[in-house]
Every structure is written in C-alpha cells, then in structure tokens.
Amino acid sequence: MTIAARRLRTGDVAAFRALNAMFAEAFEDPESYGGNPPDDAWLENLLARDDIVVLTADAGSRLAGGLVAYRLDKFEQRRSEFYLYDLAVALPHRRRGIARALIAELQAIAFETGVWAIYVQADHGDDPAIALYESLGTREDVLHFDIAPNARG
Fold first, then answer.
1. Model pLDDT, residue 1
2. Taking a C-beta distance cutoff of 8 angstroms, is the pair 79, 70 a contact?
3. Which residue ranges make up each domain of the chain?
4. Which pTM was predicted?
C-alpha cells in the first residue's frame, strides 16, 4: 500500500479539525483536543505559517493519521530543529506504515528547508512509539517538566 502524506495549508481548516478529532480519540484526551476549539481564523493563521507543519495521511477518503511539528530556531548555532509534537494513527489503520510515512515526509521537509534535526518525545510504556522512534533515530533518556506561567511580582 502506498501512503501519501499531505501538508495542510490555508483553506484546510476542516481537515485540521478532523485531525484534532482524531488526535482526541487516539490520545484519549477529548478535553485538550476538543474542549475549547479555536476559531477558523486562528487555525488559518497557523496553517499559513512556515514554522508549523501539519501533515495528514488518508486511507481512501478517510483520515488515517497525522502529525504536527514546530520549527524551533536555535541561538547557539545558526540552525533550527523540528519538534514533532503530535503524531497519531487512527486505530483501524495502525501497523501499516502510516506513522513512518508521515515522519518520512517531515524528514523531506526538514531536508528541503535546512532543518538540522527532528526530535520527538515518547511516554514510558508507549512501546510501539518507542520502537518506531528507535528505528529512526538515536534515543536520549531525558526528563520532561511542565512549568506553569506565573504573574510577575
């Protein structure tokens, strides 16, 4: 089966919303991905930006998977990295190479735009994701911390 990834751009808000709904189901997190959806103008603005990559893959006429990555410009050297923030494949389409095809498309975009590296996090216990990422790159064991914003003073 040939899997083609497609980059969403302006005018693809409906596809972006479908991707968010698929993320909500795949990550079992409907509140984060659907509890307070942004308006169309917000999504159009995101899709117009070159530093945000939104990719989808379809199986026939149905959304099978997608990813969102952010380009981060670095200060220690003149280079940038992609942070692969979200990647999911809908349950009926898993184990068919869709995640790998989406990452391959992101790798091609990174190459074409001069991005130095792509990095991604995986949760302990998410063995399929860890196996996929280990097959594509070098593993680094790090800790992740969420720090809440706070008012000055």
1. 61
2. no
3. 5-136
4. 0.87
With 80 as the cut, is the pLDDT of residue 54 above it?
A: yes
Q: In sequence order, what DSSP letters do the residues of 106-139 get, joined into one string? A: HHHHHHHHT--EEEE---TT-HHHHHHHHHHS--
Query: Per the structure block, which two tokens stand in for 94?
Result: 């898993």
CATH architecture of the region 5-136: 3-Layer(aba) Sandwich (3.40)
Contacts 24+ apart (CB under 8 A), 101-105: 101/3, 101/4, 101/5, 101/57, 102/5, 102/55, 102/57, 102/65, 102/66, 102/67, 103/67, 103/132, 103/136, 104/5, 105/5, 105/7, 105/55
Closest CA to 52 of 90, 80, 88: 80
What pLDDT, on a 0 to 100 scale, did the predictor assign at position 113? Answer: 95
Furthest CA-CA distance within the chain: 58
